[in-house]
Amino acid sequence: MLAVAAACSLTGLVLGYPYLAELALWLVINFACLLGGFLIHEGAHALAGRRFRGISSFVVSSSMFRFSIAPVGRLYGWQIAVMALAGPVAAAAAGLVLWAAVPGLLLHWWFWPHLVFLAPLFGDGRSLVVGIRHWSARVPLHAQPPEAAGEAQ
Predict the structure, then answer these.
(1) Looking at the 3D structure of the chain, how many domains does it have?
(2) Does any domain span residue 17?
(3) Confidence (pTM)
């Protein structure tokens, strides 16, 4: 991504087309917001998880288009629900702050869609459902590699 932006900037400067440098800056800023949204999202899960005793570790999984963390240990259902909510809500809150600070840039749209991850179709939504269903019970958490998680569905 940064290589494409650098190539656009350099080409624009050499050929005398300043709009290519503007395009490069736009690409870098939007990419930073996209990546920043996911870093805030997963970081909030980790911070929320660290507040609760019962998590022994986190397993990080990533692919070309996604990365996520999964806790290992035992938590009460309500703690699982709080952890599930923490990521999407933190990313959306960051978008709200960005919108309040610079509403004309429209960069907040990279952050607000994280609330969609609370739908049961996604891992956060499934965790939220498990947390609500087992609100006061201790639930064992076993992180699975993405391949195994896909086979279990």
Answers:
(1) 1
(2) no
(3) 0.83
